[in-house]
Design a protein that fits this description.
It contains 14 helices and 24 strands. The protein is an alpha+beta fold. Among the domains are: 147 residues, Tumour Suppressor Smad4; 98 residues, Zinc/RING finger domain, C3HC4 (zinc finger) (Herpes Virus-1, 2-Layer Sandwich), CATH 3.30.40.10; 118 residues, no CATH class. A hairpin with a 5-residue loop joins β2 and β3.
Length: 536
C-alpha cells in the first residue's frame, strides 16, 4: 500500500508559479510543482513523500534550470527507470512533457510499479480545454509524448539552433572542412582535430581509430553560410587553413598517431633468426647479415653484422641519433665532460642505454634514466605535472612538429602576446570580458601573466602530486591549464564597479565555473555568469 503526501508550503504556494504537475501511473494522485528543486523519497524532509520500504531517502529529485529545462537526478542505490527503458544510477537526464519515470519497477505486476508522468502546466491546460483532464485522472495514463497536444510551439530561433549544431566545440566557430572521428562519430574542424595531440575524442574521451570528412555536415554549413555570409571566413584565411591542413596531413606522426605506444616499443627492433631481418630505427633501415667468415684472419664472427644501406651523415645513437652537447656532427670529440673524454672514432652506438618517446612528435629520444652523464638525474624531458616526455629541450633543433614550446619553464609562460580565446574556463565570453578589461586598463599580456605568476602561484594547485615554481618544467597543455586557473583567480579580484553593466547584471549559473555548457553553448555562456562557485 502506497501513501503519498505533499509538503504544503503555506501561503507561498498561492503566490508561487506552478510550472509542472506529476501524475501517478496507477491512481489519480496529483502533485503540483512550484519550487525549482523537488525532492522525492521516503523521508519526511522530502517535498513528495512516498511511504514504501524500497524507496530510498531521498530517491530522486527534479530541478528546473534557468533555461526552463527539467532535469531528473537519481540519488538512490537501486536506480530510477526512464520512459525509454534506461536506468539512471547516480546520473541525470532531461525530461519532456509526457515523459515517465519509475522509482520502482516490476516486469510482471504492473500494480507494484511506482512512477510518475511529468506534465508541464501549459500542456495540462491544453488537455483541460479539450475535455481530457478527467480521463487522465480516472485512468492515470496520460497521452504519449508523440501526441500533438503535448507538442509545444518552438519559441527559439531556428537559425540560432542550427548555428549551435554547426559550431565546432574546439574553436567555437562554424565548421570549416568538417571531419568526424571514429568510432564515436563526433565532428570537428579538420584543422582543430589535426592540432590535437592526444589519441582520444575531445568530447567523449574515447580512443580514436581514424577520422574522415563529413560531407553531410559540410553541405549544411554551405547552406547556412549562404544565408549568413557575414560568418564566412575571408578567402585568405581559408587558403591559410587549407595550407595548414595539408602540412599537418603530410607529417608522418599523423599517419601513425593511432598506434599505441606499447606497440611502437615492441616493433622498434625486429629480428628474424636465420633470415635477413630488419633493424628499424629513425635513422634508416639496416639489414642483418648472417655469420660471415673473414679471409684476413682465422677468427669467425659469431654474431650478425649491421651493414647500413646508406652511411649515416652524422655520428650518434643509431636509435635516436642523439649526440652529446660537446660532440660535433661528424663524431669528433670536442671536450671532456665530467672528467670523461669522449672517443673520436665512429658512431657511438652504445651512447643511449634507454629510450623514451616524445609525446609531440613520437620520435625516440634518450631517457633521463640513461647512463649518459649529461642527462642522468636531470629532468630535461618530463613535464612535472602530467609526467609526459618531450624532446624540445634535448634535441638541438627543437621538436619537429611544434613551435619549440612543447616543454618549457613556468616563468617562460610570459611569452604569450595575446590571450587564448578559450583561456578562462574554456569560455569565450568570459575570456573576452577579461581581455577587454586588460585593454581598458592598459595592461599588456606578459605583464598580466607575470602578475598572476607572482601573486596567485601559491594559491593555485594544478596537481596534488607536485609543487611548481618558476623553474619547473611544464608542457604546453598543462601550461594552458595553469594559466586558466591563474586567470580565474585574477578575475575574482576585479571589482564589479570596474566591469560593464551587462556583465554585472547576469544571473549566476547553478553550476558556476564547473558548468559544461559554457564551453560549447554560446547562448548559455552569454546569458549567465560563470565566475562563481557551484550553488547546488
Amino acid at each position: 500500500m502506497l501513501t503519498y503526501t505533499t509538503e504544503v508550503p503555506g501561503e507561498r504556494e498561492e503566490t508561487s508559479l506552478k510550472w509542472a504537475r506529476l501524475l501517478s501511473v496507477h491512481d489519480s494522485f496529483m502533485h503540483e510543482l512550484s519550487q525549482e528543486v523537488i525532492t522525492i523519497g521516503s523521508s519526511e524532509e522530502c517535498l513528495i513523500v512516498i511511504k514504501h520500504e524500497e524507496v530510498s531517502n531521498p530517491h530522486c529529485l527534479l530541478m528546473k534550470d534557468p533555461d526552463d529545462v527539467i532535469w531528473l537526478y537519481d540519488c538512490s542505490k537501486t536506480g530510477t527507470r526512464c520512459s525509454d527503458g534506461k536506468w539512471l544510477q547516480q546520473d541525470c537526464v532531461t525530461l519532456h512533457t509526457g515523459d515517465y519515470f519509475y522509482l520502482l519497477w516490476d516486469e510482471v505486476d504492473v500494480s507494484k510499479r511506482v512512477g510518475f508522468c511529468v506534465l508541464f502546466v501549459d500542456d495540462f491546460k491544453l488537455l483541460a480545454l479539450s475535455g481530457e483532464s478527467d480521463k487522465i485522472k480516472t485512468t492515470g495514463l496520460p497521452l504519449q509524448p508523440s501526441s500533438p497536444k503535448f507538442m509545444k510551439p518552438s519559441t527559439s530561433n531556428d537559425d540560432t539552433d542550427l548555428e549551435n549544431c554547426l559550431t565546432c566545440v574546439i574553436c567555437g566557430d562554424i565548421y570549416f572542412e568538417c571531419c568526424s572521428v571514429q568510432p564515436c562519430l563526433h565532428s570537428f574542424c579538420t584543422l582543430c582535430w589535426l592540432r590535437c595531440k592526444r589519441n582520444e575524442c575531445p568530447m567523449c574521451r574515447k580512443s580514436v581509430s581514424a577520422y574522415a570528412k563529413n560531407h553531410q555536415l559540410n553541405n549544411l554549413v554551405d547552406v547556412f553560410l549562404r544565408k549568413h555570409p557575414e560568418k564566412l571566413k575571408s578567402e585568405s584565411e581559408q587558403n591559410d587553413i587549407k595550407q595548414e591542413i595539408a602540412r599537418l596531413s603530410r607529417l608522418s606522426n599523423h599517419t601513425r598517431r593511432y598506434n599505441s605506444r606499447t606497440r611502437r616499443n615492441r616493433e622498434r627492433i625486429t629480428f628474424t633468426g636465420g633470415d635477413y631481418g630488419l633493424l628499424r630505427s629513425s635513422s634508416g633501415i639496416f639489414p642483418i647479415v648472417p655469420t660471415i667468415t673473414t679471409t684476413t684472419t682465422s677468427s669467425v664472427s659469431t654474431g650478425p653484422i649491421i651493414m647500413p644501406t646508406s652511411l649515416p651523415m652524422s655520428a650518434g645513437c643509431v636509435i635516436c641519433s642523439w649526440l652529446p652537447p660537446s660532440y660535433d656532427r661528424r663524431g669528433n670529440s670536442m671536450t671532456s665532460i665530467s672528467g670523461i673524454t669522449l672517443s673520436d672514432h665512429g658512431p657511438r652506438i652504445e651512447e643511449c642505454s634507454a629510450h623514451c618517446y616524445c609525446t609531440c612528435c613520437n620520435r625516440p629520444m634518450p631517457s633521463r634514466t640513461t647512463t649518459i652523464p649529461q642527462l642522468h638525474g636531470i629532468n630535461r624531458t618530463e613535464c612535472e605535472v602530467c609526467r609526459r616526455t618531450f624532446c624540445s629541450l634535448v634535441n638541438p633543433y627543437g621538436c619537429s612538429t611544434c613551435d619549440g614550446y612543447c616543454l618549457s619553464r613556468v616563468q617562460d609562460l610570459t611569452r604569450y602576446n595575446s590571450i587564448p580565446r578559450n583561456l578562462l574556463l574554456n569560455n569565450r565570453i568570459e575570456t573576452r570580458i577579461l581581455d577587454d578589461y586588460l585593454t581598458s586598463k592598459g595592461v599588456t599580456i606578459p605583464t598580466f601573466i607575470n602578475h598572476c605568476l607572482t601573486y596567485y602561484m601559491n594559491t593555485t594547485t594544478i596537481s596534488s602530486l607536485c609543487t611548481l615554481n618558476g623553474n619547473s618544467l611544464i608542457c604546453k597543455h598543462c601550461g594552458e591549464r595553469l594559466l586558466s586557473q591563474l586567470a580565474y583567480q585574477y578575475r575574482l579580484t576585479i571589482c564589479s564597479n570596474e566591469l560593464p553593466n551587462d556583465v554585472i547584471n547576469k544571473p549566476n549559473c547553478y553550476y558556476g565555473r564547473y558548468c559544461r555548457y559554457q564551453s560549447y553553448n554560446y547562448n548559455h555562456a552569454r546569458r549567465f555568469n560563470h565566475i562563481c562557485e557551484r550553488s547546488i
